[in-house]
Design brief:
elongated; about 0% strand; about 80% helix; 11 helices; mainly alpha
């Protein structure tokens, strides 16, 4: 038991460091450089070295307790920055899901319809795999899962999902959890562009970093959502029939199973 809790604590510590401390330390370092240089001396390495050397010398003359407090303050600051970013992640998720603005969703739908009418399946599918209803590709990619399985099997995914989860084996659940975790990590990466953009207000190179972080995060989110959506659809493809059999009832179509799950609602 002690070994189990020791290993659990080790993994939690590693996750805590990777998600909060390291990104926070990088951000604090960027903010510190920005505070030392500002816009006027944004790329003045000599000035940076001189001022950093002065701060280091001053800290070296302080008592050990003061040095430990400075280190603790840095760690707490990095954790605080990480927690702020984690708190902003739901906002980033909502942006990627694209429920707003509606005019952008209508524009995507018109582009999709034109490609569909021309028979250009490749272009149509690059826009969305089903008629767009969201303002973003990621939002439509996730929404398309529900549309596609309903069209193919008459499955209402919201009604089916909890039951499908119960018939999944451990490996299937692990794959879904890993894909979801990768998508969440990609969203967190994207969200880090916000504090870097704030630093960019007084040190312009941080604004460049913010743009780079946003682009990298956007690419990662698209890739992660693609994998996650494929897995969600695969779960229905592979396990929908098994779930119907598990009911032990003479239900042969998706509509009948969905009606049973909804229980008249």
């Amino acid at each position: 038991m002690n070994a189990f809790f020791g290993e659990l604590g080790k993994r939690l510590a590693e996750r805590w460091v990777s998600l909060l401390v390291l990104p926070g330390v990088l951000f604090l370092a960027t903010a510190a450089v920005g505070a030392l240089l500002g816009h006027a001396h944004a790329l003045d390495v000599t000035r940076l070295v001189a001022r950093a050397d002065g701060i280091t010398r001053d800290l070296g003359t302080r008592p050990p307790a003061a040095q430990l407090l400075a280190l603790a303050a840095m760690l707490l600051g990095s954790v605080a920055a990480g927690l702020v970013v984690r708190a902003l992640c739901p906002v980033t998720w909502r942006w990627f899901l694209g429920t707003r603005p509606r005019w952008a969703a209508r524009r995507r739908r018109r582009r999709w319809a034109r490609a569909h009418e021309r028979g250009d399946a490749a272009k149509r599918n690059r826009i969305a795999l089903a008629a767009p209803t969201r303002a973003t590709w990621t939002g439509d990619r996730l929404a398309a899962v529900e549309d596609r399985v309903h069209h193919q099997y008459a499955v209402d995914l919201k009604s089916w999902w909890a039951r499908l989860w119960l018939v999944l084996d451990d490996s299937g659940r692990a794959e879904l959890r890993a894909a979801r975790a990768e998508a969440e990590a990609a969203v967190a990466t994207t969200t880090w562009c916000v504090p870097y953009a704030v630093v960019g207000a007084f040190w312009w190179p941080a604004a460049v970093v913010a743009v780079c972080v946003a682009v990298v995060g956007w690419v990662r989110v698209r890739a992660a959502v693609e994998v996650y959506a494929d897995l969600l659809e695969a779960v229905v493809d592979v396990h929908a029939g098994r779930l119907a059999r598990e009911l032990g009832a003479p239900l042969t179509t998706g509509e009948e199973v969905t009606a049973a799950f909804r229980k008249g609602t």
